[in-house]
Amino acid sequence: RGYHGPIYMTPPTKAICPILLEDFRKVAIERKGETGFFTSQHIKDCMKKVVPLHLHETVWVDDELELRAYYAGHVLGAAMVYARCGNESVVYTGDYNMTPDRHLGAAWIDKVRPDVLITETTYGTTIRDSKRSRERDFLEKVHRCVLRGGKVLIPCFALGRAQELCILIDSYWERMGLTVPVYFSAGLTEKANRYYKLFINWTNQKVKESFVNRNPFDFKYIKPWSRDYVDLPGPMVVFATPGMLHIGMSLEVFRKWAPDERNMLIMPGYCVAGTVGAKVLSGMKVVEIDQYSQVQVNIDVQNLSFSAHADAKGIMELIRQASPRNVVLVHGEKSRMSYLKSKIMGEFGCPCYDPANGELLEIETGQDVRALMSDQLFQAAWAKEQERRQKSAVPSDDSVVPATTPITQLPVRGVLLLGDGKRPARLLDPSEFDLDDIPVVSASGIEADGRSDSIVAADTEELTPSSASDQVVFSTRRIFDGAELAERMGLSSSVDVAAAALLAIRELLLIDPATQPKDVDEISGKRASVVRVGRSIELSVPAKTAECELPSLYVSWAWEEEELATQVLVIINRVLG
Predict the structure, then answer these.
(1) Residue 530's beta-bridge partner residues?
(2) How far is CA 127 from CA 100, 273, 385, in A?
(3) pLDDT of 343-376, one tens digit each?
(4) DSSP string covering 394-454
(5) Vertex 569, ends 563 and 574: CA angle to 5°?
(6) Confidence of residue 395 (pLDDT cuts 50, 70, 90)
(7) 139, 205, 199, 128: which is closest to 166 by C-alpha?
(8) Which residues in 463-473 are b (16+ Cβ under 10 Å) and which e?
(9) Helix (H), strand (E) counts: the chain
């Protein structure tokens, strides 16, 4: 019974998760009287299965399934996950925020072109005003309330909004020289703050820079809250959890302060229908706390959105970044999702779905092939496209030459060799090998990002390598600066730099049993001619030619040892720089 496989989490999530689960367990058992719930030992056993997933790190779960995490903003440790299995891929966003705030950066993702993008739509039809105006409005309202002797209650969740608003209040109190006490409900929020201090590299650039002088999460004016303070006279500001006023300390404080019209309630986030927070925001003056009690709401209620969810503009921007073939909307209200669905289909021209909870959704995917494009093919295609643009830009008369636009679509023509799951497919220039019987296919609409060995998507027919594929040999010539390398290695001018480099590479190859050379020709002192690794990989020093007098190394390998050759090339690049 149960799940026995790996659980992937970002490092901050792995650190915070046991605290959240234990808090959830205590609330369910001690306050709600749940039975048959998981135990503290279950939490420990669960965390033993966790595997850290770092940002932009590609993790292979098995031979087919790969995962990659992207920064999502929202809360500390939040990540969007790109998953690919075979030729099909999905991006699952979870909660994300496309607008940077005072302690976290904005979500961002590569143009991964997934078959399906599953995105939240909490604020699918809302476009929020600027962050600066919201912060100014928030601080002015808090300041006016405490000046008239009132108390301010700010319900917020322990992760994310608590830290965001505490930073805002703490800096304002210091700037204005205020002495009114500010509290946050201790417990989960206090524990979470420790991890914000620990994982400072997950925050935004401003927090990282200020960390040199002072940790911004060491609040100067904000103190831990105690239940005894709720009846104290005089103004104060309290941050309390949870954010929807449906249970816990925030509801307890609200019950005490709601009847006094001098006090203020600021709701900074989203409230689910049916919660006390949602009822108060709807304008109800008498709110049922539970089946036994009601409270008169005379408190000044303000709704200032500091939610860490993306608004409609942010959702559209993420879709633009990822460039998916299909979009699935979740985590939102049906009416808002329907409107956003029509906007997405109209602007991006891709199918969009808004399934109900529990509904099975079947989406057909294409047969596109991802391939690594070789340097030689990319450079040839780039030069050809630049030449074409220069010819087309020549004016026919004395008119002004039109401004050139960046190259975003690069048509290429090459040979596609399919991978087998372990080895990626490769798109090569026909001159890179000598097989005459491999057909040449056209791949159009490949996006160029200016990098060699870029992952590209090509609409093409399926090709199968011939029975002679094991004899397909790849080769590359690595030209390097001999003088710079000789100086770095401390070689004299009489030493053959290329041979010395090959010898140094051989020494590094000996460290790993997988890359240990099987055979070496003519190694004597500081002279090396050929180093062989595996069954087909050869490293040699080619003769200098009139076309290229710079020192170089020649590397060749068979198709079947592509993965091992990649390891060898990494070592070569480490030596040659």
Answers:
(1) 521, 540
(2) 15, 21, 40
(3) 999 999 999 999 999 999 999 887 667 788 888 8
(4) S-SSSSPPPPP-----EEEEEEEE---SSS-EEEE-GGGS--TTSPPEEEEEEPP-S-TT-
(5) 135
(6) low
(7) 139
(8) eebeeebeebe
(9) 14, 27
Bridge partners of 55, per DSSP, are: 69
Q: What is the pLDDT of residues 279-313, one digit of tens each?
A: 999 889 998 887 788 899 999 999 887 777 888 99
Tracing tokens 């039975």 back to the chain, one arrives at 35
Q: CA-based diameter of the chain, in Å?
A: 95
User: How far is the CA of 412 from the CAs of 64, 442, 451, 484, in angstroms?
Assistant: 28, 7, 15, 36
Q: Could you say which of 22, 30, 34, 120 is catalytic?
A: 120
Q: Point out which residues pair with 152 in neighbouring strands.
A: 237, 264
Q: Which of 128, 239, 209, 220 is nearest to 178 (CA)?
A: 220
Q: What is the pLDDT of residue 457?
A: 37
120: annotated active-site residue: yes
Q: Is the pLDDT of residue 459 over 60?
A: no
Q: Are residues 400 and 428 in contact, defined by beta-carbon separation less than 8 angstroms? A: no
Q: Give CA–CA dist 16/185, Å, rounded.
A: 18
Q: Which amino acid makes up residue 334?
A: K
Answer yes or no: are the C-beta atoms of 551 and 498 closer than 8 Å.
yes
Lowest mean pLDDT across 152-156, 420-424, 491-495, 532-536: 420-424
Q: Helices 40-47 and 11-26: crossing angle, nearest 10°?
A: 170
Confidence band of 12 (pLDDT split at 50, 70, 90): very high
Instruction: Say whether pTM exceeds 0.70.
Output: no
Burial of 20 (0-12, 13-18, 19+ CB in 10 A): middle
Can you give the pLDDT at residue 65? Answer: 93
Q: What is the CA radius of gyration of the chain?
A: 31
Burial class (CB in 10 A: 0-12, 13-18, 19+), 348: middle
Q: How far does Cα 17 stand from its chain's mean position?
A: 19
The pLDDT value recorded for residue 51 is 94
Six token digits for residue 298: 């005379």
Output the pLDDT for position 433: 60
Mean of pLDDT over the chain: 82
Which of 211, 166, 157, 216 minimizes the C-alpha distance to 187? 157
**Do the beta carbons of residue 353 and residue 361 sit within 8 Å?**
yes
Distance CA 525, CA 544 (A): 22
Res 547 pLDDT > 70: no
